[in-house]
Structure prediction request, 417 residues.
Amino acid sequence: MDKFYIKGGLKLDGEAEVYSAKNAVLALLAASILTDEQVVIHKCPKINDVYSMTKILQSLGCVVEWQNDSIVINSSQADKHEIPQKYGQEIRSSIFMLGSILARFKKAKAVFPGGCDIGLRPIDLHIKGLKELNVEVKEQGANVFCNGENARGKKIHLDFPSVGATENIMLASTTIKGKTTICNAAKEPEIVCLQDMLNKMGAKVSGAGTSIIEIEGVKKLHGVEFVPISDRIVAGTYIIAAAMTKGRVYLKNCRPNDLCALTSKLNGVACDILSSNDSILVKGYEKPQSIMTIETSPYPGFPTDLQAQALALQTVSQGTSVVVENIFETRFKHVGELAKMGAQIVVKDRYAIVRGVPALYGCDVYSHDLRGGAALVLAGLVAQGYTTVHNVRHIDRGYFKLEEALASLGANVKRIQ
Ligand code: UD1
Prediction:
């Protein structure tokens, strides 16, 4: 299994371009099956989660082709409505396919994605939403069978603004009779991105980005060419990396407005941040100060997907920080690994109290999940000596050749076997 071998202590310095958001692309790939015409999604990252989703599309009978960094999907011959078990249980985002397969074939079979390294991650809100659309849902062991012959639009209230459930209900209701209203919908930029592509395909969706989304069912959707939004979590990871290494990084093709929860905390405390419409310049401070509290919450709050990286920054900042993880139950697995490097952190339930130390020390550490793995890489960049980050496959799920991107900014990171 691949590892990253990092020599710490170098400041990042240079320019990086941010590619399309993984979490946007996954939902758009699910949407591609809503039409039998061609769908082209540009600027896609060649990362494992995206490859996995294209494999699911192929298993349904779609022809999927990469043309440089664009994915071309032709689902005119798609004839299967079952997500194969091996993908369904491996890939959590396969659950989005439930809504879009239902919309296309009026029936769908999926498997429960199960828990994962960051928490339980149930799909009860997805199922409840579909049931409210009058979809018959039968759960048998690990399988979920859906019949959408009599589906119709309805007002749905989500108990929690789940990103996945919001996207799934949007996908399921694009072509059913009547109007669907999702109350307490997730407001993430990736949801707005999904709305934009669906509307370009002929759907009638409005309100994304607010807590009420309305979907007026239409008869048919058509093909589309689409450029997704850029990845705010990748951009945020680079911003934190620049601050941690006391470096200077210019990020192109990013969306500063999507990153306010992070940049407003870091600016003037750990680094200077200068933003334009689509770029961000970060200049790290020699003595970054701790952020007093970092508390994750649904967008526009502080993203859970940046918690681990921001916590890594706190380990080498001056002062004490309290990090609260409100979204996922067990998203502190990186803490034990950071402690091996000399970080001073106490975890109690959903709280981590981090006291900044003058230095981290390189050693062997293990990534347990995608963002936690990225946090360990950032720690390796500033640690004294050499750090080996094991289980890089987790990081590869969401970052395209992270080692090369960081090396192009002056870091000393190598992929080894
Ligand atoms: C998505 C993102 C993920 C990100 C997360 C939060 C994708 C592919 N994944 O995940 O990277 O970390 O948003 O921004 O876009 N919940 C339930 N029942 C449900 C669904 C969710 O209880 O049916 C709970 C979850 O356990 C969790 C919380 O709601 O505690 C948030 O989950 P959700 O917003 O659904 O995250 P995902 O869509 O899984």
